[in-house]
């Protein structure tokens, strides 16, 4: 917008300067010509009194010398009463032009090499017509014209430069508020909820700034309300969790009792984490730092130890692979635990007892793939299951399980895919990028497996 305004002002100012400077330059040139010929007429008029008194050559030469340069003035007296014609000075005009001027009885001009000639008729005492010739060189005709045109050009350039400066200032006054509005929108989109823009500039941009600030205030208020609602809802879970923790104390000793108490303690920690996060004044917008995370192999081993007891009770075969060596990923431990628990919980919730399942960890130079597969009936509509925040609405589904897994993968630049597993059921692939780049669209063992069509509930 700024440069467009400058270009428009340059074009308009240039047209105005040309429209006025060209005619004015022509007028100046004509005025210089008129001035030169007026001087020539004055010189010719200075000879007229002497010609009306005498035609003596010597006297006329003295008069011509006193009136002007001998080289620039000439007098042509015709022959009369037996007297010869007298020509004083250098003749530049053609004889026919002199005769024509004498016949018509009025002044005339004619062009000659290097300038122009003024032919002025003057009556003699004898009644004959003498012609006074005055040479006007071209330099005298154009005297001062070049300087005047240079001044006009300088004034025109100054006007154009001035218009550019004014247009640029006006453009800055219009563009800066728009740029600040764009920067504020980017900051707000990045999660900087304190971003505001000055309410200044042209009226339209000022109104846009007012609307933006009002929108930002409403966004902050809405997020604050949502945080308070999440904190309140999470806080309501503390009472039943307390009762559940007290009840676990009466379970006695044994692996099942210990696992139950550990699960309740972990649930309490998760609820506390949700409450603290919801109460924070600022959203978590910092990018994941590569190198800070957890050991995926350790987390998988721990969670499989937890779920293996339930799997043993239900007669499920369990296989774990790829966890024999450390695998660092840029994901918080709690996030990976939540994602694995969501997927393994789906296996137990949506497959019959006795259904086998497996967890595999594949490590490469730029990514880590975690595969959770089972031998169940599969998923009827994987696309619906992967839709954000969508669930089947049955069997206690909230539609948040796969959202948790997706957020974990996408926080690293990875993704989540659902396909058919080698066990005959569903395979959920979590692609975790190690360098933050966009994920390569490929699946386990070289390609994305086509999902197996079967009957089963949507897993969330």
What best-fitting shape do the alpha-carbon axes yield? Answer: rod-shaped
Supply Rg. 52 Å
Largest sheet: 5 strands, antiparallel
Q: Give the uncertain stretches in residue-range form.
A: 283-291, 391-398, 438-460
**Could you give the distance between the termini?**
50 Å
- Which class do the helix and strand fractions yield? alpha+beta
Widest β-sheet, arrangement of strands: 2-1-5-4-3
Q: Quick check: average pLDDT? A: 79
Put simply, the count of helices is: 12
Strand content: 5-15%
Number of extended strands: 12
- Helix and strand sequence: HHEEHEEEHHHHHEHEEHEEHHEE
Notes on the protein architecture:
The chain is an alpha+beta fold and 460 residues long. Helix content is 53%, strand content 15%. The strands form 3 sheets. It has a 5-stranded antiparallel beta sheet with strand order 2-1-5-4-3, sandwiched between helices. Strands 7-9-10-12-11 form a 5-stranded mixed beta sheet. Helix 1 (2-53) packs antiparallel against helix 5, helix 7 (238-248) runs antiparallel to helix 8 and helix 10 runs antiparallel to helix 12 (401-410). The radius of gyration is 52 Å and the shape is rod-shaped. It starts with a helix and ends in a 27-residue tail after the last strand.
């Amino acid at each position: 917008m700024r440069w467009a305004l400058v270009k428009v002002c340059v074009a308009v100012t240039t047209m105005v300067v040309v429209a006025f400077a060209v005619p004015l330059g022509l007028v100046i040139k004509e005025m210089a010509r008129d001035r030169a010929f007026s001087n020539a007429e004055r010189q010719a008029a200075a000879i007229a009194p002497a010609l009306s008194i005498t035609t003596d050559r010597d006297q006329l030469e003295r008069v011509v010398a006193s009136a002007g340069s001998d080289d620039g003035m000439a007098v042509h007296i015709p022959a009369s009463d037996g007297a010869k014609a007298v020509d004083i000075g250098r003749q530049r005009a053609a004889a026919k032009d002199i005769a024509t001027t004498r016949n018509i009885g009025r002044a005339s001009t004619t062009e000659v090499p290097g300038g122009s000639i003024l032919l002025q008729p003057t009556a003699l005492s004898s009644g004959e017509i003498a012609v006074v010739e005055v040479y006007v060189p071209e330099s005298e005709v154009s005297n001062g014209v070049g300087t005047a045109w240079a001044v006009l050009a300088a004034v025109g350039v100054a006007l154009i430069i001035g218009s550019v400066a004014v247009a640029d200032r006006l453009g800055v006054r219009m563009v800066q508020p728009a740029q600040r509005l764009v920067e504020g929108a980017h900051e707000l989109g990045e999660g900087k909820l304190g971003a505001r823009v000055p309410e200044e500039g042209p009226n339209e941009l000022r109104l846009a700034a007012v609307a933006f600030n009002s929108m930002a205030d409403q966004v902050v208020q809405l997020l604050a309300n949502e945080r308070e609602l999440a904190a309140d809802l999470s806080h309501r879970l503390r009472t039943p969790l307390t009762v559940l923790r007290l009840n676990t104390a009466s379970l006695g000793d044994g692996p099942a009792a210990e696992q139950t108490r550990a699960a309740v303690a972990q649930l309490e920690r998760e609820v506390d984490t949700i409450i603290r996060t919801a109460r924070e004044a600022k959203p978590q917008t910092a990018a994941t730092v590569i190198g800070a995370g957890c050991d995926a192999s350790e987390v998988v081993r721990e969670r499989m130890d937890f779920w293996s007891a339930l799997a043993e009770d239900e007669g499920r075969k369990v296989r774990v692979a790829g966890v024999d060596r450390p695998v660092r990923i840029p994901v918080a431990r709690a996030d990976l635990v939540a994602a694995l628990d969501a997927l393994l919980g789906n296996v137990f919730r949506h497959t019959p007892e006795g259904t086998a399942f497996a967890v595999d960890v594949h490590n490469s130079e730029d990514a880590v793939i975690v595969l959770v597969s089972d031998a169940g009936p599969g998923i009827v509509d994987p696309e619906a299951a992967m839709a954000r925040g969508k669930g089947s609405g049955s069997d206690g589904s909230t539609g948040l399980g796969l959202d948790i897994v997706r957020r974990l993968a996408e926080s690293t630049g990875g993704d989540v895919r659902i396909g058919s597993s080698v066990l005959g059921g569903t395979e959920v692939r979590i692609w975790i990028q190690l360098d933050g780049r966009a994920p390569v669209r490929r699946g386990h063992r070289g390609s994305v497996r086509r999902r197996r069509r079967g009957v089963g509930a949507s897993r969330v």
